[in-house]
Recover the amino acids of this structure.
């Protein structure tokens, strides 16, 4: 995990993702390792893979959904995160992918835009209602939006 953190600080996101993968081999119950991989894959534009690992993280550890994370701070480049967010938004609108809607909901939740996150988690939940991770994130977002 420490190697992954160091790679992120150096903006070596693919190496960080690989390090998080190794960490999850040693501890296959580590939501932090899976989420770390998801965050790194998001920032390099691998959105479907990012969504996949994020779903695994939330399924293993539902309470991880309650953590609000400043992705720009975590990944060391707020402008890059913002650029990826806009790119992800474009791809979700073009593809209508529920997986990308799930990832968008997560990103929006973490930038404290629960009302907009609710729109995207509803899109994901409509087509992925059998996904525990989607339903976990939906409950968390709904609670935040209600406040």
């Amino acid at each position: 995990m420490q190697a992954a953190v160091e790679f992120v600080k150096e903006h070596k996101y693919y190496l960080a993702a690989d390090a998080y993968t190794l960490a999850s081999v040693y501890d296959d119950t580590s939501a932090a390792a899976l989420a770390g991989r998801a965050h790194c894959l998001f920032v390099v534009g691998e959105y479907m893979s990012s969504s996949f690992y994020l779903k695994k993280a939330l399924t293993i550890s539902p309470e991880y959904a309650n953590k609000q994370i400043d992705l720009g701070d975590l990944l060391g480049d707020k402008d890059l995160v913002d650029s990826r967010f806009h790119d992800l938004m474009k791809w979700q609108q073009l593809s209508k992918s529920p997986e990308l809607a799930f990832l968008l909901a997560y990103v929006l939740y973490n930038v404290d835009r629960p009302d907009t996150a609710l729109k995207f988690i509803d899109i994901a939940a409509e087509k992925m209602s059998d996904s525990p991770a989607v339903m976990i994130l939906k409950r968390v977002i709904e609670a935040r939006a209600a406040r």
Observations:
- The chain has a mean pLDDT of 94.
- The two ends are 34 Å apart (CA to CA).
